[in-house]
Write the structure tokens for this entry.
Amino acid sequence: GLLFAGYRYGFFKSPANQNPTAPDVLKASNDSTKTLVILPFMTDADAENEESFGIGLADSIYKKLGEVRQITVYSVKKADGEMKPPNEIAAEYGASYILRGRLHRTVDRIQVTAELLNAADNKIVWLETFDEAITDFPNLQIEITENVLKALTIQ
């Protein structure tokens, strides 16, 4: 897919580094014109392991997008209290886009809705719902990442 083509044609650089001054925020700074903030994916359940699953999904996507040279990526590791409006979050990081989503897990399935917002006007650039077997979770992460990259190249 798109990720493998990116490696072949040199669009990727070394993995993202953690920003030591902000323990709950990761930043992959690249020579780019596009800046993206990835929020933890929200879950339907209040259980701590479900929250960790949403953070893990966002982190996995962050690591994949953090390798793309044309994008600077921030990952907010946790949401303290009530979530701020997307445009406020974007302003804090100087971001032009926000990726956020929701997930719901059952014993053998995972449903994820992911949306990419334009921070300037809060309009949805890309939105998709996935319903996959839990065993296909690694492929789901790649598919979301590829769709975000496609949406950002259209802009």
